[in-house]
Design brief:
With 240 residues, this protein is α+β, with helices and mostly antiparallel strands. It contains 8 helices and 9 strands. Helix 5 packs antiparallel against helix 8 and helix 6 crosses helix 7. The longest helix has 27 residues.
Length: 240
């Protein structure tokens, strides 16, 4: 005789799962209606409406007419998370200088399971063209930085050996036609879980020149960041 336990949907874990599901529905969208949230989450309309009302009271969400948006409390918590992020604080001066010297989009990305998450982003004049933001998460195998990190630490083969030898990856798979990306890991083989990348118009990105000054500057910045903040960076990633 086996004992089967049923989980009450009102238990704290189930409730938190539903809250997380509702908040995740806003990924990539500025505002959603109740009908859109129900369609995205698959939750019963009555349950979704009840939880949404509670989140509005907590200021996690804001309601204007039929539309829901992320609330000021989440903005406050998100800003605090960035402020407390030692990795972001340690890297910021290096990224700012790289952006100043190149005029290109500069990003620092970290592996998070099968995804990569943007931890710092400086776009300057390209800001309106690039959808990325701090906290933006996407599948690692769909991005150059994700593939470079996996290749640098795990994979084998001719292409992988080239990345492990040079410490740099090149690609044209960007959200903007005519743009390219150069990426390099931060840290040695087997240790690097974050990467530094620059992105911009192909006329400014000599992807066919493996030893270009731009590539050298990117590698130099990543090495400097690792030397000056490697210990704090590693501690920060382990703590998170």
């Amino acid at each position: 005789m086996s004992l089967q336990l049923e989980v009450d949907p009102a238990t704290p874990n189930a409730f938190l799962d539903r809250v997380s599901l509702l908040l995740d529905a806003f990924g990539g969208r500025d505002r959603l209606t109740l009908a859109e949230i129900v369609r995205r989450t698959g939750l019963p309309r009555s349950s979704a409406h009840r939880i949404l009302d509670h989140l509005v009271q907590l200021r996690w969400l804001h309601r204007s007419g039929r539309d829901y948006t992320l609330g000021l409390r989440l903005v406050e918590l998100g800003s605090l998370a960035v402020y407390q992020d030692r990795l972001h604080s340690a890297a910021h001066p290096h990224l700012y200088e790289l952006h100043r010297r190149t005029g290109l989009i500069v990003e620092m990305t970290i592996l998070d399971g099968s995804n990569v998450v943007c931890r710092a982003h400086m776009a300057g004049r390209f800001a309106s063209m690039i959808p990325n933001r701090i906290g933006f998460s996407t599948r690692a195998d769909g991005t150059l930085v994700g593939r470079v990190l996996h290749t640098f630490n795990n994979e084998r083969g001719e292409a992988a050996d080239e990345v492990r030898k040079t410490g740099v990856g090149y690609g044209r798979d960007t959200p903007i036609d005519g743009f390219g990306t150069i990426a390099t890991p931060i840290g040695p083989i087997g240790v690097a879980t974050s990467a530094l990348s620059i992105c911009g118009p192909l006329r400014q990105m000599p992807l066919d020149e493996r030893n270009s000054p731009l590539t050298g500057l990117l590698r130099e910045t990543a090495a400097s960041l690792w030397r000056n903040a490697g210990v704090r960076t590693t501690e920060s990633m382990r703590a998170q």
